[in-house]
Design a protein that fits this description.
By secondary structure, this protein is α/β, with parallel strands linked by helices. The protein is built from 16 helices and 9 strands. It folds into 2 domains: 218 residues, TIM Barrel (Alpha-Beta Barrel); 76 residues, no CATH class. InterPro entries: Aldolase_TIM, DNA_rSAM_put, Elp3/MiaA/NifB-like_rSAM, Endo/Exo/Phosphatase_dom_1, rSAM, rSAM_sf, RuvA_2-like.
């Protein structure tokens, strides 16, 4: 490998990290250095932009330790057989970059992943050393997200959780068949075993902290995972069911979806075209329905096309579900429980909260709903108020044409030149 300076390595390894979507920084413990000790904070407003639950934008240095890899996963641009320019940071170089960028007010934290070099244990040791040095040698109190390696020694993965705010263990593909076909060197059982161990460690450390204040924090922002969408034959229904299982079994904070992107010198087993990015967006919306709107996985799956198993691209999953189950509508906004109000297309959780609060004092009319929502036109066919009942709209066979958004221009490519 030719000798590269740090700037050249950064150019290569920051670009190689762009395919990893799971870099949100929400949910971690609050820390700062206002007491004059250490450096950094997880509280300030922030090179990757992540958003906390309160809307703060936090900038993360998002890089790979190396894009060299001993594995040959078909879908990965950094696979062993890929003809790409390689680079590798030392652990100390990543530490120095993180501190230098923070002091220039460029970032608030670090997102670190890596290809596998020498062995999973060796690579995991290097990743952990970066986090250890930042925390212990430099008292860095900013956000750290580490991508862990399920094949590494469990003790190394545990050490990652002691230093990081969040850890990720990627399941890679939605189905066991897809993983075996496109990443035969990876073991789905070992991946799930590592996620199970991480969940147990997070729970055990949480219990210890309730009893002993001096107990160390362990991955306070939890663990997440990522699935590649469109590289195999998995349908949206398969992906939704898989995500639900992962949430239930391993207590994940997030499941991220990354649309497959064709890579140079691709294997013949891969599709020639990438899936539409709107598919990725619809999966995130379906994920939101399960996490915040009380939808069961089978309800979201019911919104998919019965023949293809795919979510419609022209309308969002909640609207697709409502159009399939029109017998549940219209809903009386003055009487319906919260769970049914959540199922009305066009109503978000904040709008539902406002409706529940307002109807304690008066009977709501259509004008009231218009003031509480962004678009009453989308809501109107599905609700009943004191002065509105959508008799004609509800009986129309082409109701989707009335409530679906207008066709947009061609979708832009995320990484197009």
């Amino acid at each position: 490998m030719a000798q590269l300076d740090v700037r050249q390595k950064l150019e290569i390894l920051a670009d190689a990290a762009k395919y990893d979507a799971s870099c949100a920084s929400s949910g971690t413990a609050k820390r700062n250095s206002k007491d004059g000790k250490g450096i950094g904070s997880t509280e300030g407003m922030g090179i990757c932009h992540a958003y906390a639950p309160d809307g703060r934008c936090i900038s993360l240095l998002k890089i790979l330790l190396t894009n060299s890899c001993i594995f040959d996963c078909h879908y990965c641009i950094n696979r062993k057989s890929s003809n790409v320019r390689r680079a590798r940071f030392t652990a100390q170089e990543v530490v120095n970059l993180t501190l230098s960028f923070y002091r220039r007010n460029y970032i608030e934290g670090l997102f670190l992943s890596s290809g596998i070099i020498r062995s999973p244990d060796y690579t995991m040791e290097q990743i952990v050393e970066v986090a250890r040095s930042l925390r212990e040698d430099h008292q860095f109190r900013g956000y750290i997200h580490l991508k862990t390696i399920p094949d590494a020694d469990p003790e190394l993965v545990r050490l990652a959780g002691l230093h990081a705010d969040r850890v990720s263990i990627n399941v890679e593909l939605p189905t066991a068949g897809g993983l075996k076909r496109l990443a035969p060197e990876k073991d789905g059982a070992r991946i799930e075993g590592a996620m199970r161990d991480m969940k147990r460690a997070i729970i055990d450390t949480g219990d210890a902290r309730q009893r002993y204040r001096s107990a160390p924090r362990f991955a306070p922002a939890g663990q997440s995972t990522q699935m590649i969408v469109g590289a195999d034959a998995a349908t949206d229904g398969d992906i939704v069911a898989r995500a639900s299982t992962l949430y239930d079994r391993f207590g994940l904070r997030r499941v991220y979806y990354s649309a497959f992107s064709p890579i140079p010198d691709a294997s013949t087993v891969l599709p020639l075209q990438r899936p539409p990015l709107m598919r990725e967006h619809r999966l995130y919306q379906s994920d939101w329905l399960m996490r915040f709107y009380g939808f069961q996985p089978q309800e979201v799956v019911a919104a998919t096309d019965a023949t293809t198993g795919m979510l419609p691209l022209d309308i969002d999953p909640k609207l697709a579900w409502a159009l399939k189950f029109r017998d549940r509508f219209p809903v009386d906004v003055n009487r319906a429980p919260r769970e049914m109000l959540w199922r009305i297309p066009g109503l978000g959780t904040k709008a539902v909260a406002r409706i529940l609060s307002a109807r304690r004092w008066r009977r709501l009319r259509l004008d009231d709903i218009a003031r509480l929502t962004v678009s009453v036109a989308k809501v109107r066919p599905f609700i009943v108020t004191d002065d509105w009942r959508p008799v004609l709209l509800a009986d129309r066979g082409d109701i989707s044409a009335l409530v679906a958004p207008k066709a947009a221009t061609r979708q832009l490519e995320l990484f197009a030149a």
